[in-house]
Amino acid sequence: MTQWQGVAEFVAVAETGSFTAAAARLAVSVAQVSRQISALENRLGAKLFFRSTRKVVMTENGGVYYQHCRSLMDGLDEAERAILDLQTTPRGKIKMTAPTTFGEESVMPLVNDFLLLYPELELHCDLSNQLDDLVTQGYDVAIRIGNLSDSAMMARKLAARTRFVCAAPEYLDRYGIPHSLAELEQHNCLVGASDFWRFEEGGKSRNVRVSGRIHCNSGYALVDAALKGLGVIQLPDYYVQAYLDEGRLISLLDHYREPEEGIWALFPHNRHLSPKIKLLVDFLARGFGASGAV
């Protein structure tokens, strides 16, 4: 007798609540299911179900055993899917999420290029700044920016971003250039989702409260306002780098700039990284100019 004997029957009964339904699921006889469960209970020396003529209920021991057996069955299913994936063209659904603006500007154009290469793939993508529970929401991969704190996830760094404080030359000619964090109080700061801007001073992170005439949760709207000389902004490089290169915006307070933030691909620890997900992440990494293996 092996340790696997009776496990499939036990899980089927636990999930269906019936020996008859479990037998139908497994395409075996009810007597076969009953024999396997009895043999399993004898081997474990513990009762796994309370049985009556009307229903079957797991014991406390059965509940504990089920949690472990379900994980084993899931792992076996994942292993079989992994082998099948290796032998076939990438197909099926990919469920992913990414921050709204960065997703629109940088992630989705690359993902769309990826889908052109693999026409049998189907994408479900949520662009959102909400930090959903990636495991319970069933995401295969999530793109996140900044410091990571979720120990339930594996991560691969794809690239990095830098936040710039900047303003148009016309604004600076009129109101002057701030040289210290305290001088930001004298300027019209164009505020996004948060009225705190992040800096590094003396090797330590520092948040500075700012205020101004415009509050808007759109980075593009704030860039437009800054380009028109309405104030000072703090935004990631993918909003402003082109305008900095052209001289239409001037970078400010560079010696207080925080170190660059990581751009990450996250995966649940308990979910098999299938070849199609690895292909996608590798493609994104190349697109962002990163390197390394999952």
UniProtKB/TrEMBL annotation:
Gene3D superfamilies: 3.40.190.290, Winged helix-like DNA-binding domain superfamily/Winged helix DNA-binding domain
Identification of the protein by name: LysR family transcriptional regulator
Entry keyword annotation includes Repressor: no
Stored Pfam families: HTH_1, LysR_substrate
PANTHER family, alphabetized: HTH-TYPE TRANSCRIPTIONAL REGULATOR, TRANSCRIPTIONAL REGULATOR-RELATED
Organism: Zhongshania aliphaticivorans
PROSITE patterns, per database record: HTH_LYSR (PS50931)
Keywords for the protein's UniProt record, in alphabetical order: DNA-binding, Transcription, Transcription regulation
